[in-house]
């Protein structure tokens, strides 16, 4: 139920929303409708940010101070950082890290 406020439920629905947008982008030809493509990319970024926010909240609850520090500003100078770049980089880094753990 979408009205469930638990972090796990929030994550489930946020992940579901992210997958819906990602699937639409995968099957979408942005050259035919660039405005729709821009809208979908913005929705994807918002969905990723929501998943990241919930993931951070879950990790804060479960592992608190034991979390590894992810300081992207040390690795990437100010001139290449964009508004949500740190979150996007974290998303990609964490997913890649998790895939390495599984393999």
From TrEMBL:
Any one Gene Ontology cellular component term annotated for this protein: early endosome membrane
Superkingdom of this protein's organism: Eukaryota
InterPro entries: LST-2
PANTHER family linked to this entry: LATERAL SIGNALING TARGET PROTEIN 2 HOMOLOG
Protein name: Uncharacterized protein
Organism in which the protein naturally occurs: Aromia moschata
